[in-house]
C-alpha cells in the first residue's frame, strides 16, 4: 500500500470519527442554546478563523511540501530549520493578533455584526490562537513525512475533549444568558485544541530525529533562505485562505445588513443565519472530511512526483482523488436531499434549515472537488493562481449575497444562492488552471453512470422511507432508508465498474480478507 493511499486512509477514518463527534457537538449546542445561540456562535466564528489564517501565514502547506522534499533528499538539518523558522514566525504573529482580537471585540460586535452579544464568544475564543499556531506547524511536519497518524489522532482527541465539556459548560452558563452559553461553547473548543496540542508535542518528542530546542535561535538566524523558500509557497497559499477567511468574515456582516435592508429584525436575522450556517451547512459539508484527507495527502505525494517530473503519476493521483471525492460526495448528496426534513428533525429537534439542504445539496458536488484541486495547484507551485481564483469567487459570492439577500423576495435564500455561486465558480476556475499544467482525461461515460446510480439509489431511499415501516420510530425509518441507499449505491457502483476490485483490495481489512480466503 503506497504512502499516499495509506495516509489518505488514516485521515479518512479519523475524519469520519471527527465529523461524527463534531455533529454530536453541534446537536448538543443546538438543543442547548437554539437557533439564536447558534447564530451568535457562527457570527463570531469567522472572525476567529480570519485571525488564525493570518497567524498560520499559510505555513502548514509549505511545511508539508518542503519537508517532503527535504525528506526525499535525507536532509535532516533542513527539516529542523523548517520547523524552527515556522515556529518562530507563527508564535510571533500569535503574540500580536491574540491581544488585537480581544481589544477589537467591542468594535466588531457592536458596529459590524449589529448584535453586541457576539462580544462574549469573540473574547472567549481568542486564547486558542497561539495554541493552533503551534499545532498547525507540528501537523505540517508529520504530513510532510507522510505520517498522518499523529494528526489524525489529535483531531479525534480534540473532539472527544470538546464534546465532553460542551454539554456541561453550555448548561452551566445558559442561566446567565444565551451569549454566555455561546461563549462557553467557544471555551470548550479552546480546551480541546490545547489537549490536541499536548498530544502532538508528545508524539513529536517520541518520534523526533533531532533536539528542537538545541541552538533554536541560531537556526532562526541562519534560516533566511529557508524562510524565503517557505514564503514562496505559504504567502500565495495564505492569500487563497485569507481571501476565503475575509469573505467568510464579511459574510455574516453582509447577510445581517442585507437582511436589515430587506426588513428583517436583528434577532430574526441571527436566527436565520444560524439555521443556514449552523444547521444546514454542517450537514452538507459532512463529506468534506474525505476531500480534506485527500487534499492533505495529495500535497506531499504530488510534490514528490513533481520533483521527479513524473506527469503520469500526477494525473493518476488526481484522477484517484477526484473520483473518490465524487463517489463519496454523491452518496452524501442523495442521502441529504432525500432525508433533509427527518434528519434535521432528529438532529436538532426542528426541520428549520431543511429547505437550504435541498436547495444546495446538488451543487455541493463542486465543493467536494475544490479541496483536491487546490492541493494539486499548491503542490505544482501554482498557489498564486489558486489565490486569484479564490479572490474572484469571494468577490462574486459577496456581491450575489448582497444583491439577493437585500431583496424581500429572496432574504436568507439569497445568502444560500450566493454561497453556491461562490464555490462553484472557484472549483471551475481551479479545474481550468490544472488543465493548463497537466494532461487530464475526462471520462464522461463514468460520470453519466455515476449520476444514474445516484438517481436509482435516491429513488429507492425515498420509497423505503415513504412506504416501509410507517408506524416505526422516525430514527428507525431514517436508518433503514439510509442503509438501503448506501447498500444499493455501493452495489451499483461495483456493477457499473466505477469501483474496481483491485482498489478495494488495497484497503487493509479487505486485503487481509482476500489473503485469508
From TrEMBL:
It is a multi-pass membrane protein. It comes from the Bacteria. It holds the Pfam family Polysacc_synt. It is found in: Cell membrane. Its main location: membrane. InterPro entries: PG_synth_SpoVB, Poly_Biosynth_Transport, Polysacc_synth, Spore_V_B. The chain crosses the membrane at residues 38-61, 82-107, 119-138, 159-178, 184-204, 246-267, 279-300, 321-340, 346-369, 381-404, 410-435, 447-465, 477-499. Keywords: Cell membrane, Membrane, Transmembrane, Transmembrane helix. This is Stage V sporulation protein B. The lineage of its organism: Bacteria, Bacillati, Bacillota, Bacilli, Bacillales.
Amino acid at each position: 500500500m503506497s504512502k499516499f493511499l495509506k495516509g489518505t486512509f488514516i485521515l479518512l477514518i479519523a475524519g469520519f470519527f471527527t465529523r461524527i463527534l463534531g455533529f454530536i457537538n453541534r446537536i448538543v449546542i443546538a438543543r442547548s442554546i437554539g437557533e439564536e445561540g447558534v447564530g451568535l456562535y457562527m457570527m463570531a466564528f469567522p472572525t476567529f478563523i480570519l485571525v488564525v489564517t493570518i497567524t498560520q501565514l499559510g505555513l502548514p502547506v509549505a511545511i508539508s511540501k518542503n519537508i517532503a522534499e527535504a525528506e526525499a533528499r535525507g536532509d535532516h538539518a533542513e527539516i529542523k530549520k523548517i520547523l524552527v523558522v515556522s515556529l518562530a514566525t507563527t508564535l510571533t504573529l500569535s503574540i500580536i493578533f491574540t491581544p488585537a482580537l480581544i481589544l477589537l471585540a467591542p468594535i466588531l460586535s457592536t458596529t459590524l455584526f449589529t448584535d453586541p452579544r457576539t462580544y462574549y464568544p469573540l473574547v472567549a475564543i481568542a486564547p486558542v490562537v497561539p495554541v493552533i499556531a503551534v499545532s498547525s506547524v507540528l501537523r505540517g511536519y508529520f504530513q510532510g513525512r507522510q505520517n498522518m497518524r499523529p494528526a489524525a489522532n489529535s483531531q479525534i482527541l480534540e473532539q472527544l475533549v470538546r464534546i465532553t465539556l460542551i454539554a456541561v459548560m453550555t448548561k452551566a452558563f445558559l442561566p446567565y444568558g444565551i451569549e454566555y452559553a455561546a461563549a462557553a461553547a467557544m471555551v470548550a473548543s479552546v480546551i480541546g485544541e490545547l489537549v490536541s496540542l499536548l498530544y502532538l508535542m508528545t508524539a513529536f518528542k517520541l518520534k523526533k530525529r533531532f533536539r528542537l530546542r538545541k541552538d533554536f535561535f541560531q537556526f532562526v538566524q541562519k534560516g533566511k533562505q529557508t524562510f524565503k523558500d517557505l514564503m514562496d509557497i505559504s504567502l500565495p497559499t495564505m492569500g487563497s485562505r485569507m481571501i476565503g477567511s475575509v469573505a467568510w468574515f464579511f459574510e455574516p456582516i453582509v447577510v445581517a445588513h442585507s437582511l436589515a435592508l430587506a426588513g428583517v429584525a436583528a434577532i430574526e436575522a441571527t436566527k436565520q443565519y444560524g439555521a443556514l450556517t449552523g444547521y444546514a451547512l454542517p450537514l452538507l459539508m459532512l463529506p468534506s472530511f474525505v476531500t480534506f484527507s485527500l487534499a492533505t495527502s495529495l500535497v506531499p505525494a504530488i510534490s514528490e512526483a513533481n520533483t521527479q517530473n513524473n506527469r503520469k503519476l500526477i494525473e493518476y493521483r488526481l484522477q484517484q482523488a477526484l473520483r473518490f471525492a465524487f463517489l463519496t460526495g454523491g452518496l452524501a448528496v442523495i442521502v441529504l436531499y432525500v432525508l433533509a426534513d427527518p434528519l434535521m428533525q432528529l438532529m436538532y429537534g426542528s426541520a428549520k434549515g431543511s429547505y437550504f439542504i435541498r436547495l444546495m445539496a446538488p451543487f455541493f458536488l463542486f465543493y467536494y472537488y475544490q479541496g483536491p484541486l487546490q492541493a494539486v495547484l499548491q503542490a505544482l507551485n501554482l498557489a498564486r493562481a489558486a489565490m486569484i481564483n479564490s479572490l474572484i469567487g469571494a468577490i462574486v459570492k459577496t456581491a450575489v449575497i448582497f444583491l439577493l439577500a437585500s431583496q424581500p423576495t429572496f432574504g436568507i435564500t439569497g445568502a444560500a444562492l450566493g454561497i453556491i455561486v461562490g464555490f462553484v465558480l472557484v472549483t471551475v476556475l481551479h479545474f481550468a488552471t490544472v488543465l493548463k499544467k497537466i494532461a487530464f482525461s475526462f471520462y464522461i461515460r463514468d460520470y453519466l453512470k455515476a449520476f444514474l446510480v445516484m438517481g436509482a439509489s435516491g429513488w429507492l431511499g425515498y420509497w423505503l422511507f415513504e412506504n416501509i415501516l410507517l408506524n416505526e420510530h422516525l430514527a428507525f425509518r431514517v436508518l433503514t432508508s439510509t442503509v438501503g441507499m448506501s447498500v444499493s449505491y455501493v452495489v451499483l457502483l461495483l456493477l457499473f465498474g466505477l469501483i474496481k476490485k483491485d482498489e478495494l483490495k488495497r484497503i487493509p481489512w479487505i486485503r487481509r480478507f482476500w489473503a485469508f480466503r
